[in-house]
Amino acid sequence: MARGENQEAQTGNVPAAAPGPKPASAGAGKGAEGQSVVRRLQSELMALMMGGDPGVSAFPEGDNIFNWVGTIAGSAGTAYEGTSYRLALAFTAEYPYKPPKVRFDTPCFHPNVDAHGNICLDILQDKWSSAYDVRTILLSIQSLLGEPNNDSPLNTQAAALWANQEEFRKMVEKLYKPAA
Amino acid sequence: MSVNIPNSCLRALDAISLECPDECLGRGVPAAVLQFFDFFSTTKQKVALRIVSNVFNGYAEEDGPTAMEAVPALCNLLQSSDKTILESAISCLALVAAGASGNAEHLSKLCETNVVEATMALMDNEGWKSLRDDTLTAILELLKNLASVSEKAVKSLFELNFCELLKQMITYYSSSHHDNDKVQMLVELIYQLMLPPETSDQQTKLVAANRNAIMGQTTYKDQLASIVALIAQISKSAAQSSVCYSCIVVIGSIVELSTPNFLTELQKTANISSFLTCLLARKNRHILFQALKISRTLLEKDQEFFFETFTKEGVRHAIDAISSQDKNSILKSKRKNSMKERCFCFDLESSLTDKACRVENNVVMELAEEINKSFFLVKGSKKSAHRFGFSLKSVRDFFARSLTPSAENQDKGKQLSHLSRRLLPDELQVYSTFEFVQSGSIRYLTDYLSNAEYCNANPELQSRLQKFAHLALTMSNDGSTKPLGILVGKLLDTLHMCYDTFPVMLSDEQCTRESTMIPLRYPETQETTSLELKFRRSKKDKELFNYTAVLSVKLFSTPQAIEPVIFPRVFIDPETSHKNSNQVKEANRIMKLDERNGLRFFYNGTILNPSTTFLESILLLMSKGEADILIDPSFWDDEHCITYRKRNKSNELSFKSYYNTHLGKLPGDLDGSDLLDMLKVLEGINHCSYQLLMNGQIEKFAEGTLQDLDDLKVAVYPLPRHQFMSSLLTNKLELQMQDVLFEDGFIPSWCVYLVETCPFLLPFDTRWKYFCLTAHRSFMTDQINSSANQVNSSPDQVSSHSDQVKSPALAKKYRVTRSAILEGAVSMMTNHGPSSRIVEVEFEGEVGTGRGPTFEFYTTVSHELQRSGLGMWRGENSEDGFIHAHFGLFPKPWSSSSALLRGVDFSNVLQKFKLLGHLVARAVLDGRILDIPLSKAFYKVLLEQELDIYDIPSFDPELGKTVIEFQALVRRKKFLETSSRTSNPSADLSYKNVKLEDLCLDFTLPGNPEYELVPRGSEKMVTLESLEEYVSLVVDATVKSGIAKQIEAFKSGINEVLALKTLKMFTEEEMERILCGEQDAWASTNLQDHIEFEHGFDMSSPSIITFLEILREFGREEQRAFIQFTTGAPQLPLGGLASLDPKLTVVRKQCDGNVDDELPSVNTCRHFIKLPPYSSKDIMRRKLKYAITEGLGSFHLS
């Protein structure tokens, strides 16, 4: 299975919407549950709307406060300049003790992102801290776009191409399918 | 010549040689038979050799020359490729040599052939491992005989580097615990190589002189020197005095033959003085005598040097102690005739058998006095007043200082820097074990670190332990030796001086147990041995009745247990004695046995410890503290007379535990129990090193020396467990367990004491054997039986009792339905859980019975218990419907207020935990295997260790990390509040630059919002002020009160089957090994099916083939490390490698430089392992092992 993914990534035949499984959200769904998490997420939402960080934004998807949609814009001066990516964030009842599950919704050609949009980023795994929030996550991913970790690539083709920024930019554009 | 004729001849000779071997030998049959050997068929060749062996069996000395004629032919046969022929030829040669032993002329003829070289060739290159046991014995026997007379043989042995071979063999056999005979034989062989110079025979004197010259050659001497260290080690850790004695005699011979220069060298490499100190602490006079002789020889050879060394290492002190012993006390110790007396002199020098033992009691003392007079007293007067060396005083002073309470607070920093300097490896190493012990430092150090209830003790002690752990574990500069390691080494050395405290008691039946298969159950059909006790009223006692019956008690009966049986029969109640009603009497008697009234038991006038078995007490009193006790068969037939007397408060003696009274006094007034205490403390520190060091880090953060919460991590490298193990005690316990009566309850109290209080001194295998041999005692049902039937006072009772117990140990069968397996398991365990028989399972509607279905049952039930939605475990519900806990299963906390949650009834959860307890206990007893990845912390609970905040990361790293960081924040806040210098009131008390309030935490359990930590907790927000309360409540809910009921149910499940406390001798890891078996993470056959290969690799790449080979060769520990390395979690999901998602993928690592310098790396997100294409399998294995073990054993919290 893994082999298939990577070959697709190499040849660039990534389907527009990768059919990744819906992230499991154990405690999600019921409003009465996770009072603490709901409160925390509401407060984060307020902060995000007030803060106005350039290039990142996030909002709950529909009625469910445990599932959010985030957007990041490619930073100026990087291969991703002018692009905008949608991400799906799924929180569990253990947030903020455990990180949310974050996935690219928009296909993204990047050394640390696989064909399903899974991201390999330390703060989303073992380096997670309860002090992080949606804003820091989105900012981290934004900066990851410009500064990939080429030592442990999920997409080896992207990692190999990184040295040639011109070609890389072309690939990014070729595979970029902005959300409608 | 017809072929048939020689065949018939052979047949005839075969018969004749059995009848009259001498005649055959006289007529040269062996040589003749061997002459035509090559013409015979293989079967005939074997007959021929049988004839030769018949002929040589015990031939007369005058036939020696004729016998020698057959030797060259026999030697030729040693090259034979046929194993049977080879073995027969060796045994023939051994017989020839045995027959000629004592006749140097014949034997030297034997040596002129190449027999030495030929046999050595057989043993070279680990060839001895493939030889049959009796063949090897024959070879050693042969070489021994040759070496005893022929210097040529000795010379060739040395030339062939025989010492190296001996070393290998001794190391191998002494580590296997049941080949003591082999070790003894090897040591004897070395002894023969040396030959004692004092042997009187004219001929041998000449030989000895020649040999002396041989020894003079440096190459041989180096070989000998290397073997001395090994023999000294064997001697110190030998379980039997006889082995120890042979070793010391060998060392004595080497010392005798050596030059002073060589001996000085030997002292430096093997520390022979320390070895002598250890032996001089023993009671066996043969050993003492030899040790003294060696000491004298050493002093004679280099007085200056060895005077110094002996003083430093304690030899002088020991000799002093021996010579100043009370003369009468030695003479008094005349043996009882029922104990076998053994004189070891006979073991080595067979010529002495008819003479009396040369080592009389007073000889030892006289020799000690002589040494004292001629060496120590003269020298001592002109030397300094320091009897025990110069550096000693400073060590002692130091520890005394660090304990003075007044200096405690002001000088703490200074003291610790002292301590650290002392503990630096090079400093600690300078002091000899003797000096260290003599200085009293151990006692001080124990006091300093005592009450070591590690993490819950008072703050002062906690901080001492913390600082000590920090110094002892992390101050290693080169990483090779930690101060703690040296300390433990010295303590174990000292412990080995307490040899006599752990007497091995062997019953006469010298049949040893097969060590591999140990039955977990008491062989109930076997006749049990019992002890005949005749109870008699003490003459001084007039109140009690006389009781005349002879009781036959079980071997494990103690005075305590017998008391309630005897008491009612002998006690006259002053109030009821005049009444005639028997019934009233009966009732009163039983009631009256209490604190105030009871019995004391005596044997030969010595009061018996109520909790020590009669058997042991009697044996110890009979043997006067000798360390090897061999019971004479007559002991079991004798009636042993026990007197009893009324016990009342006034003459109540307080019986301390065995070890407070019996563990010998060591130099420096150190009690043996202090020593064990100290080892226990150190082991505890080692065990809790993560907690202690982490606590230290938090303290640093609180005080501001550590700024960033992200730096709050420690790398812990605890001492490996084997460094705490005592080879002597392991050997002794192993030997004791080989005794056939061990299972019957003939267990000396030191065994129980060691296993219960200091299990870390013994390796797992030994403890597991002990558990198996004693497990039947922990069966609940058996316990009831045994206490009720411990005394068989009447014959009828004996028979009825035996009927009841000796029913055949058949397995109990139970039928379960697959569709309702959990229910079936619950009812099976409720009915048959506590059974002392093996429980087997059949599935409803299936024909299979026995092992297979039973194993499947345990596996299936353990899987069922991992289903999500049961409310048992923490962790994510994975899509397959099972809980997936990356770090092992740990109970999910349940609030006491909610009995029902999401359709799960708490009582059902408890029932399942009880079932798990049953399963665990039955699995241990029946040798079943559970497939359930319990977390380390849960095993800790099982072993009744307390959990605290530092255990949380082991099963939930994210939560654990955050609460520990919160804890650090709380401490900093407290520190700032209490410290007088509040120069910076606005110090940073945010949580990683986030205000605590902004985290929006309320007082509910993280991830479990229904669990309110306080009433209406979901409305109470966590602030900096309430953080402390919050942290302690979260910790309490997670590892204590929130899981208390589940744990209780689990433990009660275990306790219904076997006593939980008997499992406490194991560690968490060992428990897991017992329960889950040595399961492999993958089956080697289908390994390649579950691994993907990409980016330059495919299934047929040479690197991949090698890689798979290496993976298959990995042991369990390495597999685990590999899984941890590649996936980040130690546990694979249910189903193993096959269910890993994404699949484990091996890709080729691009290397710029030399591939062999690179290390493999991983991407744990996607389970990639990047493997450089190494040039050889060896390098790949080395690099892989390095990569996976690097950082293993260290637990980083990051």
Task: Describe what this molecule looks like in 3D.
The complex is a heterodimer of chains A (180) and B (1198). Chain A has 180 residues and is α+β, with helices and mostly antiparallel strands. Chain A is built from five helices and four strands, in the order ααββββααα. Chain A has a four-stranded antiparallel beta sheet. Chain A is globular, with a radius of gyration of 16 Å. Chain B is α/β, with parallel strands linked by helices. Helices cover 54% and strands 7% of the residues of chain B. Chain B has a six-stranded mixed beta sheet. In chain B, strands 19-20-22-21 form a four-stranded mixed beta sheet, with helices on one face. A two-stranded parallel ribbon of chain B has the order 1-6. Classes of the chains: A alpha+beta (180), B alpha/beta (1198). At the A-B interface, helix 1 and helix 2 of A face strand 13, helix 50 and strand 18 of B.
Assembly status: heterodimer
Question: Helix content range of the residues of chain A, please?
Answer: 25-40%
> Count the helices of chain A. How many?
5
Q: Please identify the structural class of chain B as seen in this structure.
A: alpha/beta
Overall geometric form of chain A = globular
Largest sheet report of chain B: 6 strands, mixed
Q: Show the largest interface.
A: A-B, 39 and 41 residues
